[in-house]
Write a structure and sequence with these properties.
The termini are far apart. The protein is built from five helices and four strands, in the order ααααββββα. The chain has two domains: 39 residues; 128 residues, Roll (Nuclear Transport Factor 2, Chain: A). Strands 1-2-3-4 form a four-stranded antiparallel beta sheet. Helix 3 runs antiparallel to helix 4. A hairpin with a 7-residue loop joins strand 1 and strand 2. The protein is 44% helix and 21% strand. It is of the alpha+beta class and 177 residues long.
Length: 177
């Protein structure tokens, strides 16, 4: 019995001695994992799954946040969106984009969400097709996705029945789009 108590005491001492190392290892693993997510998306599917996963879960995205804009949108359109938001806020106006860019709506109740990615002839651009029902009305949105230094991001959004996101900001996106 005394032998078992000695082993238990030594195990506790060993665990107590390792505690700082275990805490540091856990911190490093968490930091590395969250850093990878902040660097960007490794595929077009991962990008769209994250964005539209929020809506599947009944959550919205703060699309007016500078951090969110820079995370999801390619630099040219992101810069225009951020500048427009700042200018509108400075004069107490509504920004050019006055609805959710991922749904093309101000209010939403999303069902029947489907995402697909086109096969592309180029390694750094493709199109994401998103269909869903908003309050029972069928909707389709096409997203031009571009591989950037940050990973996959949105270069433009085509709302099909309205002008493209790039048109709102006076940006010329390549003609094949």
């Amino acid at each position: 019995m005394a032998h078992n108590n000695v082993i238990a005491s030594r195990s506790r001492i060993l665990l107590i001695g390792l505690r700082p190392f275990l805490i540091a290892a856990t911190f490093l693993m968490t930091s590395c994992t969250s850093g990878m997510a902040e660097e960007g998306f490794s595929s077009p599917q991962a990008l769209l799954n994250e964005i539209y996963g929020h809506y599947r879960n009944g959550e919205s995205i703060n699309y007016s946040s500078e951090k969110v804009i820079e995370k999801y949108f390619a630099s040219e359109i992101a810069a225009k969106m951020i500048a427009d938001n700042a200018e509108a806020a400075a004069v107490g106006e509504v920004p050019t984009l006055d609805g959710d860019p991922f749904l093309n709506a101000q209010d939403w109740e999303i069902t029947d969400l489907a995402i697909s990615i086109a096969k592309s002839n180029t390694p750094d651009t493709t199109i994401g097709y998103v269909t869903f029902k908003n309050f029972g009305e069928a909707r389709e949105i096409n997203l031009l996705l571009q591989k950037t230094a940050k990973g996959w991001q949105i270069a433009d959004i085509d709302y099909l029945d309205q002008e493209k996101l790039s048109d709102l900001y006076g940006i010329k996106v390549h003609s094949s789009w």
